[in-house]
């Protein structure tokens, strides 16, 4: 998998957690580029080898937020020691997710768009659990116990209350 390998693995066959971080950066790039093959403009693996070892990196995919691409580039640092750990990546991705999920999406606008009454976690069951203190009824009985934050407003979940609807089998 040359297209996912960092320079130190290509040149010296050295592998570490930081090699996996590099590959994770390429995976993020694939996700944002709608599954395009990394370095698709290269016909052969030897061309990819030359580009990566000469510090040529993948370009920002269309529609990819700047913060996400910045994180990808951090994963592709030439010096493996300068790359983030997976713990750091998790923290950064969570911050980015919360910011992107909250940008321009109030809980009211979300509820107006999502009125079918389904659980917004699994989309299979009827939402019958109200999350307290925010009051959003957005999860089914199976998914609600897993939630630490409301998926709509990101408020911490203190309590979960089942709501029974007359005439609806839950």
What would your notes on this structure say?
It contains six helices and three strands; from the N terminus they run ααααααβββ. It has helices at 7-12, 17-32, 45-53, 66-75, 86-102, 107-113, and strands at residues 129-132, 137-139, 159-162. A three-stranded antiparallel β-sheet has the order 2-1-3, with no helix packed on it. α2 packs antiparallel against α4 (66-75).
**Helix/strand class:** mainly alpha
Count of DSSP E strands? 3
Mean pLDDT, all residues: 88
Counting structural domains, the number is 2
Q: What do we call the CATH homologous superfamily of the largest domain? A: Transferase(Phosphotransferase) domain 1
Global shape: elongated
Strand order of the largest sheet: 2-1-3
Q: Termini distance?
A: 48 Å
Q: Which percent range fits the helix content?
A: 25-40%
CATH class of the largest domain: Mainly Alpha
Number of helices: 6
User: Low-confidence stretches at least 5 residues in length (pLDDT < 50)?
Assistant: 104-114
- C-alpha Rg (nearest Å): 21 Å
Biggest sheet architecture: 3 strands, antiparallel
Query: What name is given to the CATH topology of the largest domain?
Result: Transferase(Phosphotransferase), domain 1
Helix and strand succession?
HHHHHHEEE
Task: Summarize, please.
The protein has 170 residues and is mainly alpha-helical. It contains six helices and three strands, in the order H-H-H-H-H-H-E-E-E.
């Amino acid at each position: 998998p040359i297209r996912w390998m960092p320079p130190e693995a290509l040149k010296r066959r050295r592998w570490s957690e930081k090699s996996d971080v590099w590959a994770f950066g390429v995976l993020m790039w694939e996700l944002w580029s709608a599954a395009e093959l990394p370095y698709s403009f290269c016909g052969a693996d030897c061309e990819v080898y030359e580009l990566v070892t000469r510090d040529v990196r993948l370009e920002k995919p269309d529609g990819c937020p700047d913060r996400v691409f910045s994180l990808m580039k951090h994963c592709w640092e030439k010096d493996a020691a300068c790359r983030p750990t997976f713990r750091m990546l998790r923290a950064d991705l969570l911050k980015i997710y919360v910011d992107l999920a909250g940008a321009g999406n109030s809980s009211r606008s979300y509820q107006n768009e999502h009125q079918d009454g389904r659980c917004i976690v699994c989309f299979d069951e009827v939402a019958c659990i109200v999350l307290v203190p925010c009051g959003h009824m957005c999860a089914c009985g199976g998914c609600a116990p897993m939630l630490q934050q409301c998926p709509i407003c990101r408020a911490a979940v203190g309590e979960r209350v089942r709501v029974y609807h007359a005439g609806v089998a839950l």
